[in-house]
Amino acid sequence: MLQVLVFLGLTALIGGLTIWQCRKPVPVAAGEAKAYFLAGGSLSWIFVAGSLTLTNINTDTLVGWNGNQLLMVVWWELAGVPGLLLLAHLFLPVYYRENCTTVTELLERKYNYKHLRATVAGLFLVGNVFIFLPIMLYTSSLFLKHLFGLEMPLMVIATIIAVIGAAYAIFGGLRAVAISDTFSGVLLFGMAFMVVFLALNAVGWDLGGLPPERLQLFGDESSRLPWTTLLTGMILTQLFYWSTNQTITQRALAARSLKEAQKGCYAAALIRAFLVPPIVIVPGLCAYLLFGDIGDATYGTIVKAVLPAGLSGAFAAAMVAATMTSFNSTLNSSAALYVCDLHNAYINPDSHVRRLSVRVSVLFAILGIALVPAYMGAESIIQLIQQLIGLFSMPILAAFATGLLFKGIDARAVMASLLFGAVLYAVFTFLWTPLHFLHLMAITFIACVAFSLLLNRLIRPRQKSA
Known about the structure:
Blueprint: H1 2-21, H2 32-37, H3 45-56, H4 59-68, H5 75-78, H6 80-97, H7 104-111, H8 114-148, H9 154-202, H10 233-243, H11 246-253, H12 258-274, H13 276-291, H14 298-306, H15 312-346, H16 353-370, H17 381-388, H18 390-405, H19 411-431, H20 437-465
């Protein structure tokens, strides 16, 4: 009962601090959509950094990477540092210059074609609703079930988390999401580093008993992460994730200014370089020494083994907060994509933003809960995420790259490349896999750009002759 009270108390404290910080009204001079989805451009660099970090770090990260029980997967986190720097210096100046609310708005400006913007927004929505939301709920529910030995079904746990997390996105908009992210981050990192310390203490501060392949930093071509992928698909996935992904980039677009947004990106890059690697690697390696190869059950098992019983409530609060921050961030960005890119463009440009956002957020949350069973039993949930997002990430990144690097590209050629890229990567993933999926992502990206340029040459002459 004491731990339940600790859990409820810390959860309520984060909520209370968020309400207190949000007591001042959001500036609405720039319009209702920017006020709700971009916090009226009111975020300081601290909240930008906190929200960027906690939107990315959640239970699927902690459960998934520790579940690999390999040192080399740390590259997924370290590669985020150049990803954040590219966002700060390459993409943010363009987004701010074009006064974008969503990243897809930039595509409409570059190609002068709203249907391309809507198509890419639709792809983001499919990824958010059918991949990210249910996986977040699944991994957090799985963790809590292992930590407390809960007998209740995963679906019940997932529903409770979804309801609490959705409340931030629905009632507070992006400002409440970003502020709760930052406060939750302080608790999460404090507890996560305690687990690192206790796990190392449990193995006598000696990882020497691990098999050599578990401690390899650079894998060969037969490993789960060959070193050559760091030069191909790894770079491109980070560029997509940090610079063209609405859920992430939206936080930087909500800053008071471009300079404030860039400062937030720098702070998030420092956190990713020095604080994130230990919490996603060390507990998994220690768990291998203690329990062997136990997959995605690793993090919950090691925490239950090393954490004093008196802190279980606090740790549960940290993990649920981490899930809720990512869940509510994804809900908020999904609502922004639907309202700004689809509903306002095709149904009703004068819709009530907040009311419509509440409705679609509730719908997306329900779909996320319903899809949780689809991911139960995956061998490695984090690898599954990285593999599935290639279906739309590389075609979308290619659309941005083509628009920024080349002039006079017909939007219809880019639209066709989105379908071409998704089909090509699906063939690579489900029918024929000659290389590591990160290499195949790079091939898909290059093929999409080349397909757009080739098709553009076929379309343009016809237009001139007509």
